[in-house]
Amino acid sequence: MRSEKKYVPPLFETKRARGLVFFRSFAVTLFVGICLILFYRVSNIPRDGEEGRWVWIGLLGAELWFGFYWVLTQALRWNQVHRLTFKDRLSQRYEKDLPRVDIFVCTADPVIEPPVMVMNTVLSVMAYDYPPEKLAIYLSDDAGSVLTFYALLEASRFAKQWLPYCKKFDGQPRSPAAYFVSKSPTGDGGGQSQTMDFTAIKNLYQEMADRIETATMLGRIPEEARLEHEGFSQWDSYSSKRDHDTILKARTFDTIYLAREKRPQHFHNFKAGAMNALIRVSSKISNGQIVLNLDCDMYSNDPLTVRDALCFFMDEEKSHDIAFVQFPQWFANVTKNDLYSSSLRVITNVEFHGTDGYGGPLYVGTGCFHRRDILCGREFSQDSKIEWKKHDDHRRQQSVHELEEETKTLASCTHEQNTKWGDEMGLKYGCPVEDVITGLSIQCKGWKSAYFNPERKAFLGLAPTTLPQVLVQHKRWSEGDFQILLSKYSPAWYAHGRISLGLQLGYCCYCFWAPNCLATLYYSIVPSLFLLKGISLFPQVSSPWFLPFAYVIFAKYIYSLVEFLWAGGTVLGWWNDQRIWLYKRTSSYLFATIDTVLKTLGFGDTAFVITDKVADEDVSQRYEKEMMEFGATSPMFEVLSTLAMLNLFCLVGAVKKLIVNDSIHRLHETMPLQILLCGVLVLVNLPLYQGLLLRKDRGRMPCSVTVKSSLVALLVCTTFSFL
């Protein structure tokens, strides 16, 4: 008789999201409404020579774009799936054969990424519930700062007390700063013993933090520390953060500091270059089969996260084609109503589940577990399982010093010359979003990824606390995504046939972020100006064509609100999200589009801007009160302010004309949609008007921006009225 294959319970399950039939039916009705709007535009185009012909054609173009982009967004919602892991089964089958895991923490500037914050991230991953001999932590310091190295030494000493404490009391979260904020000495009911231990470990942490912060403030380390550890001699030949030798110090085999070599004449490729140096160096020291990379502010919030990720890599039946496992980006400092829409709530709780249904999410640069062999360029095959039971103990045959000297060359400026690094191996170069293009290229080889959004957030970081930071961050993201669209790895053509159509459309949705600015700017300016002039651009209430406009507008935004609330947001949070949506499209995306076009034409270079993780005390207080922070002159602010003032002038001017002409009663019949559009644009800009005209604190809009934007808006409105 033929023997049957023994059933092995899976390590993870995939379930289809609920309510998809209802959503798809609703989406079909919305699609019909959009088609009717476009038919109305096409069939009512003014003839040659008639007033408003080109304005009407412009509206048709904008609405075609909005319709096209809406279709792309539906791909992210059409086939949502959710994952469930079984860590108990993993432990039962593989506890003695768990693979080595290398964790990369990347920092680049001790001023805007404080060493104390970085060390909390490092300590949180040191304390994972995982065999310590199979865990190696690498800190990449792209500034080559002696302050960061000093902080790592202090953190390593503190870890000797912190790790046993976490194991004894199952302390969570395991970032000390977050733990002491969220816990009290008697909060867990652990009795007098835990209270004493809590107080002692908290005092030790505070002493460590004080020493690190003092050194950071003074810009130098204590002399006794320099004498105590020979590693500080590496900085004797240090010139600047852009000109120094490789600095590689392994205090133990499991905690390694790396500052790759930097020279002014060699381009260093930003974070992608740092990650590739880490991949090479770690391959000689620990050679973990799984690699986790984290931003320096993204601390681990769950000590079991590594085991969750391994469930996807070690399942006997379904793991052979999984290249990376992406966890969501969550933030610990988001306000109740998410003032700047920093949580990316809908992307995290809805859209990435949609990409997962088509072959996996994007790689977003942090909170991501990779198979090392695939990250290093392994080609896809159906029989690509990895041997987890192998052990690489060659490193134990050498001393720490010998290993440091042997490995330094792997992080030199010239090591990558005439190699495949940055192209076919490691993270790809030449793009501000090196993570997204790297993940796309991996998936185009045939590999898949998985998205795991556990109930307990796996990682928590720091969101921007000022509007300039938010806009600059989104400019970098949208610019990078747009560059991918125009690159040889474009999801629009290169990915065709290599990944599923749904995932291809999902990538395009993000790659088309930047071009959204054109249609949004047109809709934010032209209807308002024609409202001021008294010319209707939309159907009147009495027209049957009013119905598809009304249905699409209200159905789309009601669904958006319901979706946002389902994702855990608030009504005011949704309103804030709509405001930031407008601000991004009319400023960040505009400048991203301009810079991308200039770079494509050879007039610009790729730049990488680090988001500041430090905020002044008064800025933090305003942020906690959910007061929008301006406080600086910026071309983006000038655009936003001019648009806001233009819509305000148009609305006031139109109402004034109607009152003077005694035709206010006809307003709701002749131009209801233009009044609605202009009115919403004014309402959504209320915090901006406060910053321009009413506020007196340091977070207000600079007076120069107020004057300039008001004059430009007034000039445009006045000129247009007389045309």
UniProtKB/TrEMBL annotation:
A Pfam family: Cellulose_synt
GO molecular function, a single term: cellulose synthase (UDP-forming) activity
Bilayer-crossing regions: 21-42, 54-72, 545-575, 637-659, 671-689
CC annotations in GO: Golgi membrane
Biological process per Gene Ontology, one example term: cell wall organization
Keywords, ordered alphabetically: Cell wall biogenesis/degradation, Glycosyltransferase, Golgi apparatus, Membrane, Transferase, Transmembrane, Transmembrane helix
Membrane topology type: Multi-pass membrane protein
Catalytic residues identified in the record: D142, D435
Main subcellular location: Golgi
Keyword Lyase: no
Localisation: Golgi apparatus membrane
Binding site for UDP-alpha-D-glucose: E113, D142
PANTHER family: X-BOX TRANSCRIPTION FACTOR-RELATED (PTHR13301)
Function: Thought to be a Golgi-localized beta-glycan synthase that polymerize the backbones of noncellulosic polysaccharides (hemicelluloses) of plant cell wall.
Protein's name according to its UniProt entry: Cellulose synthase-like protein E1
Organism: Populus tomentosa (Chinese white poplar)
Taxon lineage: Eukaryota, Viridiplantae, Streptophyta, Embryophyta, Tracheophyta
